[in-house]
Amino acid sequence: MIISNIEVLQVSYISNIVMDSEGHTHPGKEHEAVKKILKITTDNGIVGFSFMDSIHRGIIEEIVKPVLIGENPLYRERIWQKLRPRQRLNRHFNDRTLAAVDEALWDIGGKIAGMPVFQMLGAYRDRIPAYGSIMVGDDFPGGLDTPEAYAKYSIELVARGYKAIKLHTWMPPIIPNPDPKMDVAACAAVREAVGPEIKLMLDPYHDYSRQQALYLGRELEKLDFYWIEEPMNESSMSSYKWLTENLDLTVIGPETADGKNYTRAEWIVSSASDVSRAGDIDVGGITPLIKTVHLCESFNIGVELHGNTLGNLHVLGAMGIPGEYYERGLHHPFLNYEKPMPWFNKIYDEMDNEGFVTLPKTPGMGWDINHDYIAEYSVE
Amino acid sequence: MIISNIEVLQVSYISNIVMDSEGHTHPGKEHEAVKKILKITTDNGIVGFSFMDSIHRGIIEEIVKPVLIGENPLYRERIWQKLRPRQRLNRHFNDRTLAAVDEALWDIGGKIAGMPVFQMLGAYRDRIPAYGSIMVGDDFPGGLDTPEAYAKYSIELVARGYKAIKLHTWMPPIIPNPDPKMDVAACAAVREAVGPEIKLMLDPYHDYSRQQALYLGRELEKLDFYWIEEPMNESSMSSYKWLTENLDLTVIGPETADGKNYTRAEWIVSSASDVSRAGDIDVGGITPLIKTVHLCESFNIGVELHGNTLGNLHVLGAMGIPGEYYERGLHHPFLNYEKPMPWFNKIYDEMDNEGFVTLPKTPGMGWDINHDYIAEYSVE
After folding, report:
1. Are residues A80 and A152 in the same domain?
2. Which residue, of A182, B5, B167, B279, has the fewest CB within 10 Å?
3. Which residue in B has a C-alpha nearest to residue A291's C-alpha?
4. A92 shares its domain with A164
């Protein structure tokens, strides 16, 4: 069995989400958008899919395709190790594109094996507690424009079943000068609204000074927050070592820092965070994410997974250390997260009223794909 | 699907291998022996096997069985994480018994998936270069009694196809006072016999002083040896850090040190060896061995696998960093390694004339079991 084709499908759809100049998403006016879908086909007819954002089509055609065509799709480690060094000078070959390739291959592998990916890996659990991850703050009346707006929305999330909530607060371009005092006001309002039993986390502006981050962390300690993530530029690992030493509050990271599991190893030996962090989209797929998990486990260090991806769900289902939570969202009062994107028949992370997401039982990744939509709305 | 039974089969056979008081094996008089085989059965009729030495039958019955019965055999991570803490006070629950359970479960998983274990993990390669691993020295005329005997036998191993050879030299109880000069004499004779192109490694007496180990390492550098392993008590990690700092020769370890991937992590951050070392039998199965590999990879540290097990072969087939070699043996002039044990129809590590072992292509672990023999020679 060999890989016979790899292609990036493009489908048009109506989106009500817009991206700001920092790359954060917000609710917006309905507009036409294009979704990229990676499809890998084998000569025996088994097809694998993945649905990462930021897939780079030119990289797939020019850099990835020559490696994949004719290769056995079960040789994921060989393929991944061949592709990884090609990222060095091909700067468009981001980890999300690498992850897309890896997860389409896991989809094929699971379909051949007749089992979901987390069971191929060796399963640990069937359902994962989720936290509700609230979008970055904005200035929409009735949106996420005030501490009170966060508080009100948090009550809705608790009513939905969440036992844990993470805030993203205000940052540029919404406000030009982020202010830890505004973060604290939002966090205090949410704590007041949801009471002491709900776990709360904060992911604030990512470029505070050490002093601002320390102030913020100390205030979150008073509010009994569960963790803080990425309040400073992660390129300065020393800043995180300093912050972690100075706070009782759990500091988790790195998230957006380049370097996959290698970078996580350096943060661990530098004690630059209390809990590590990685997502399939950050490190280049399930293959390197499980490496990161095994690295962390070897140091008795937890790792919280970044992002609401199905790849993360499978790894959470296969890992024997925390990862305590699945990050479900991003949520916003104006958006209906429970409604599937049109290329899916249903969302892959349905949550019960107790706040748990159950892992898929279908072979492979377990996407429930609306192939009719993809065929009908295909665009070049 | 659930696990319905786990049992330790015992079969009698005629062995010509004996164990000395230190636990090392040698050729010996033919005698009746008993082999333990672990068998896990599922309610849908799929059966997994493993063939570790040192399986503890009482531990399987009393400690393992209650965890396994009724559990889904694909939940390897959950099972492993439940069993591991039970080793703490159950001192008979050794890592080989844990490994036996884990690998019988991988056998079941691969059979369900219809693919060999290394492809479930995500394959990297189909064949592995092997080194010929020579037994510990002895005092048998024509055996491994002199440097010249090692030299003569090494020429045979090279003729067999090996491009690399590892010596185990003389140690108690064969000689009461091990002497690095004797190791050097054997190593020099082998180097002289096989020429400069064959890679050579040494695994000498395991309780030398720092000074003896340093002397030995320096001499091996002159003989262009590829690595040295475990010349001192591994409980003293500081001794290995000291030796590694002082030698150019590659020091690999730890091998017999307890603590699985956790211990390997500590050796890495302490720079206590140049290359890590672990075998499925040392760390408790394929599940923790792949964790160890991922740990090492995250630090760009190689890991050479210990022992001639099929579990190691599968992990070697799935790992993208060295592990450069499969350890094939132990070899001795009096023994025919190519002849299968009677519970197998053929050996699992046949080697071609170029010195490569090809991974099994059959689903699961890929044992080729002589079930008739097991049925006929079963003993209580």
Report:
1. no
2. B5
3. B294
4. no
A311: helix, strand or coil: helix
| Same structural domain, A52 and A154 | no
Cα–Cα distance for residue pair B331/B349, rounded to 1 Å: 13
**Are both A220 and A333 inside the same structural domain?**
yes
Range of the domain at A310: 119-358
CA distance B333 to B349: 19
For B67, phi then psi, to 5°, come to -75, -35
* Measured CA angle at B226 (ends B220, B232), to 5 deg: 60
pLDDT tens digits in sequence order for chain B, 380 residues long: 999 999 999 999 999 999 999 999 999 999 999 999 999 999 999 999 999 888 999 999 999 999 999 999 999 999 999 999 999 999 999 999 999 999 999 999 999 999 999 999 999 999 999 999 999 999 999 999 999 999 999 999 999 999 999 999 999 999 999 999 999 999 999 999 999 999 999 999 999 999 999 999 999 999 999 999 999 999 999 999 999 999 999 999 999 999 999 999 999 999 999 999 999 999 999 999 999 999 999 999 999 999 999 999 999 999 999 999 999 999 999 999 999 999 999 999 999 999 999 999 999 999 999 999 999 999 98
Number of domains in chain B: 2
Residue A147 and residue A210 share a domain: yes
| Type of residue numbered B326 | Y
> Quick check: is B328 in a domain?
yes
Tell me which chain B residues have a C-beta less than 8 angstroms from the C-beta of A122: 74-77, 80, 109, 287
Q: What are the distances in angstroms from CA B332 to CA B167, B179, B200, B261, B312?
A: 11, 21, 17, 31, 22
Residues A164 and A253 in one domain: yes
- What's the rounded Cα separation, in Å, for the pair B109 and B314? 14
Suggest the residue from A102, A117, A119 to mutate for an interface test with chain B (most B CBs closer than 10 A).
Answer: A119
Residue B38 lies in a domain: yes
Judge if B125 and B238 occupy the same domain: yes
Q: Distance between CA atoms of B32 and A46, rounded to whole angstroms?
A: 52
Residue A184 identity: V
Work out how many CB contacts closer than 8 A connect A with B: 112
The answer to whether the CB atoms of A78 and B123 lie below 8 A apart is yes
- Note whether B96 and B165 are same-domain residues: no
Supply angle C-alpha B116, B119, B121, rounded to 5.
115
Domain CATH for A76:
3.30.390.10
Chain B nearest-CA distance from A353, in A, is 25
**d(Cα B86, Cα B76) in Å, to the nearest integer?**
16
> SS3 helix, strand, coil % of chain A, rounded to 5?
35, 20, 40
